[in-house]
């Protein structure tokens, strides 16, 4: 807890998670023939989402619903509101098309499971305790922003074309947000973990705990390659979007840290709340936008979330959000 800024930053940059991500970036930039088969990438994603959901559910069972419901409700509300203040910034300051502003806003209101996992690793390496049930916040923040973003995009598109089928838009957006792989696995595994409790955690620890760090390293190796492929799109994204993709997460992280402190989370829990507020989805949200808002430009929302925000959060953001949490708690 007495680490200074440079110490925290150095520890994070030299963590296996960040180093494997950098290795993936290097592999793409030097045009290596290293590639992950699509089924392997899918399997790694399924494992990580299931493991974090199951462990979170078991932690909720151990802590009790009484301790979880308030911060979970705050996370749900925050996830709903973030796209509503992201949209006007993107639309009028960034001068983006309404549908593009709505799609990007949905990405920044939703969350990144891998950033959350990297944050828990960072906290453990820094010796900072946190509430294990914070995985519940990840689950409840995944969907609301996607629904809000799709509705914004559909409503604005209907104004432009003179058609309005809001009932259909709501039905489709709810399905895309709630039946997607990420949400289904997180919520389903969390429910299983909650029902099976400590006994279930002990029975599955050899699979969900022991191999977790190695599988995460492989996944971040792949994510580094995917992110590096988007580096070439940075010029098309424009300078405004580059600034937005770094400044907006920091602002949301500060708000998230304030809320985490206000609802009584520990320094570690406050850090995770800030990380979730600052993260941007690059799995669930792109899939939903591709189906529900096909006219939105994927270069804009994928480049900002995956090529800018994700690397920023993984390298510099995590120590910054930890410092924010310590500042709110008055911890030196």
Describe the structure.
This protein has 15 helices and no strands. The protein has 332 residues and is mainly alpha-helical. The chain has a single domain (38-329), classed as Na+/H+ antiporter like fold. Helix 2 (16-29) runs parallel beside helix 11 (212-229). The protein is globular, with a radius of gyration of 19 Å. The protein starts with a helix and ends with a helix. The model has no long low-confidence stretch (mean pLDDT 87).
> How are helices and strands ordered from N to C?
HHHHHHHHHHHHHHH
Largest sheet: none
User: Roughly how many Å is the radius of gyration?
Assistant: 19 Å
Give the termini separation: 8 Å
Pick out the low-confidence regions. none
Strand-pairing-aware structural class: mainly alpha
CATH class call: Mainly Alpha
The general outline is globular
Which band does the percent of strand residues land in?
Answer: under 5%
CATH architecture heading: Up-down Bundle
CATH topology: Na+/H+ antiporter like fold
Which range best describes the helical content: under 10%, 10-25%, 25-40%, 40-55%, 55-70% or over 70%? over 70%
Estimate nothing, just give the exact number of structural domains: 1
Individual helix count: 15
Q: What number is the mean pLDDT?
A: 87
Q: Based on DSSP secondary structure assignment, what is the total number of beta strands?
A: 0
